[in-house]
Design a protein that fits this description.
Arc Repressor Mutant, subunit A; ArsR-like_HTH; DNA-binding transcription factor activity; WH-like_DNA-bd_sf
Length: 173
């Protein structure tokens, strides 16, 4: 408790330590193995699932797929070849450039992309089962965790001075 709160009947007891809460959060997230679910349900790795989800928005070139997946173009080509063999995508000519190919989902690919999106975005049953008030509280906590601290304990060093008082070669003058 804060010393200011001592003796106040409404003062809350000390919460669990941040280190323990962090460990509990990590264990919870690690227990939600979406990659395993993708493999078991769809026989897909995360990269291919994400490519299918992106392709559900519209056709893409191999280069765009590589950039989206942050892989080299040859790796994207191999992945698209595998997806094509499974009947999930097709390749066709680009309407503006015959040197490039457009990749698009088949009807089956659209279904698999939707299933992959569900697997990756559906909340775990234990989270979905929380009472509305608990979900609202958790939403506030997660929002606070995702916000920059109001009183950071570690502040960035001040930016170097520029202009008359700066040393030569250390910025614009």
């Amino acid at each position: 408790m804060n010393p200011e709160d001592a003796g106040h009947p409404e003062a809350a007891p000390e919460p669990a330590g941040a280190t323990q809460i962090w460990a509990d959060l990590q264990a919870f997230v690690a227990g939600q193995d979406r990659r395993r679910a993708l493999r078991l349900e769809l026989d897909l790795g995360l990269g291919k699932a994400e490519a299918l989800i992106k392709l559900a928005q519209g056709p893409m070139t191999l280069r765009e797929i590589a950039e989206t997946a942050q892989v080299d173009p040859p790796a994207a080509t191999v992945a698209v070849d595998q997806l094509q063999r499974r009947g999930l995508v097709t390749r066709g000519p680009h309407p503006d450039d015959n040197r490039r190919k457009l990749v698009q989902l088949t009807d089956t690919g659209l279904q698999v992309a939707a299933a992959a999106r569900r697997i990756l975005t559906e909340p775990p049953p234990t989270l979905a089962a929380l009472a509305p008030l608990d979900l609202a509280m958790l939403a506030r906590i997660v929002g606070a965790l995702n916000s920059p601290p109001e009183n950071p304990t570690h502040t960035a060093p001040p930016a170097p001075a520029h202009g008359r008082n700066s040393r030569p070669g250390q910025g614009p003058s």
